[in-house]
Amino acid sequence: MEKRFVHKQTKTADDMDAEQTKLDGLTSLSQVHSSRRKRKRNDIETIDGIRKMQSKGVKTVEKEVELVDEISGLPESVIHHILSFLRSAKEAARTSILSKKWRDAWKSFSVLTFDERFFLKTEVDLSRDNRRQTFIDSIDNSLRSHLAQNLGICKLVLRITPKLVPYLKQWVEMAGANGLGELDIHVEITHQRYKVPPFMHSIKTLTGLRLHGLNWSSFEASEFKNLQKLYLRRLQVDQQIIQQLVSTSPLLMDLRIIECLGLKNLEISGFQKLERVDLYQCHGLKTIEFQVTSLKTFWYCTKKYSWCKLNLESCTSLKRLAIEDPSMTDTFFNKLLVSFPILEKLDLSRCNKFKIIEISNAKLRSLGLRSCKRLKAVDIDTLTPCSLDYTGHHMVYVLGRLHLNKAKFSLVSKKEDGEYNFPIRNIGIQSFLRCHCNGFKIIVWFCKTVIIYDGSKEIFLPPSPNLKLDVIKPSTDVKDLLDDLLTKGHPERIMVVPSPSSEVLKVLHRIEREADPSCCSYINSNRKCWRHFLEDAKIMNNAGVEDISGWFNFLDQVTIMNLRWEPPMHFGKVSHHKKDSDQGL
Question: What confidence tier does 92 reach under pLDDT thresholds 50, 70, 90?
Fold first, then answer.
């Protein structure tokens, strides 16, 4: 009996070692994708718990096997859905260590990307025509191989020059025969747009479609029952084609039409799942009418002096709205805004006819005002903490009740009669800071100098044509704040106007050069923190500082630190206000 027990115990230990190897692989995989999974902490706690229970015997091992079986028992469609959230094919391949089923699912999960211009640059040993033919053959062989092995294609990306447009039909038909999920066709723009070949009817499983640089003038009657995302960019389109395509896609969730020609009217109604629509510089668009109660995000940008009738009254679920329209009037906008009772984010850019706008959306959390030249005042009434991002030549007056959370300002003055009209002459910014930013930390950026107003009631701005201001919560950790400032731009001077209870000065006095910093383990110098580049840091008073004597030395208490860096970094290259991409909100 004792031998049998020892034998069984030894076997259990071997099983535990094998399971430990799987767990180590799973732990490593979780660390790789930690930025994309919010459940990382729960995974680690689960694994640690299993490790602790391993000492309790065979029952623990059986429970662990059952846990792994749950992961392996997921349907292949669910596994493919999980893999689709990973950033690259390399990351998806790593999941093959989880189990044999995951390894088989990975083999059937293919993201095929073919970039003709990149291929022609790398294959330099052949003539250009031979390189292009080799590229064509590589696509043919890859698609035929997947078809022969009955391997599904999750996504097919084709980035080609116009000469290869005639091959699109056969390539897409081969991919569609294997259950193609997403199709992305990008054709290089030339003076002539090539027509899309009639192949769309053959793709019954399509969930995502992206087309760029084609002339879409013919469309076969078909229902895209699985289509969820439709992105059209720089296309010559036909009005009826777009209307038919949209109307035959009941599961459509995301529609983006960017710089397309030929679209005059866009009417969408009856959708239950459509959540986002982007319309960007579609020249000739005259009417937009949505009756979509599920719409949550709408981004609308039009060219200068291009008038369009906009009807969004039925979109009562809208949470994010971005408008860039030089022709829209503030009267129309104020009426439009009333239709969105749960609006959370509002961005207005280059709305040059706006003078006074009224915002009474109680749930607004973010407001962006960028380059609205004639805007003078914003009458706002919110109930929730709200952030403000403002860019312009002059600061507007903010009236009403604004529960400010944080703010960013970029004030750029223009020359008038050969002289700059400095932002300091505009009392709007001073009025805003006094009314809405009492007790906040105010960070002022200009040239290579940073000024920190730590709860100071009196705020004076330097006479500079370009100023950037950050309004930061009083509760912000001072050490983190200074680390961020020093890392962003390596300023040559930090000036602090402290409050009586300021913690900024205490942390500032601890800044010094370290001979051999061991805080960062990065090999790449671009990823190292400021401590690796600081040569010297010296505290001084404001006496003898010539360029601030005219506007700053009348303050009772100013602490100045001069810094010297190696290698030098140009302060002006740092951007503190990220510009929205063409992806919209």
Answer: low
- Check: CB of residue 296 under 8 Å from CB of residue 276: yes
Question: DSSP string of 371-433?
Answer: --TT--EEEEE-SS-EEEEEEESSPPEEEEE--EEEEEEEEE--EETTEE--GGG-HHHHHHH
CA dist 534 and 490 (Å) reads 8
pLDDT of residue 107: 55
Nearest Cα residue to 479 out of 505, 500, 499 = 505
Tens of pLDDT, residues 166-207: 898 889 888 888 788 899 999 988 766 666 666 666 577 888
Q: 574 lies in which domain range?
A: 427-585
Q: What is the 3-state secondary structure (H, E, C) of 90-129?
A: HHHHHHHHCCHHHHHHHHCCEEEEEEHHHHHHHCCCCCHH
Q: How far is CA 391 from CA 161, 396, 487, in A?
A: 39, 10, 24
337, two tokens: 């805004």
Sign of the torsion formed by the C-alpha atoms of 412, 415, 416 and 419: positive
210 forms beta bridges with: 184, 231
Residue from 241, 247, 245, 348 nearest 585 by CA: 348
| Rounded mean pLDDT, 513-541 | 77
What is the C-alpha to C-alpha distance for residues 251 and 230, in angstroms, rounded to an integer? Answer: 11
Cα 513 to Cα 244, 506, 538, distances in angstroms = 66, 16, 10
- Are 119 and 145 part of one and the same domain? yes
- Tell me the C-alpha distance between 105 and 75, whole Å: 9
- Look at 30 and 196; give whichever has higher pLDDT: 196
User: Would you say residue 416 lies in a domain?
Assistant: no
CB 206 within 8 A of CB 227: yes
Domain boundary among 221, 245, 262: 262
Model-level pTM? 0.75
257 and 269 belong to one structural domain: no
What type of residue is 413?
S
Domain total of the chain: 4
- The dihedral region occupied by 160, where left means phi > 0, alpha psi between -120 and 50, and beta the remainder, is beta
What are the residues facing 289 on neighbouring strands? 267, 311
If residue 77 lies in a helix (H) or strand (E), which one and from where to where?
helix 76-83
DSSP 162: G
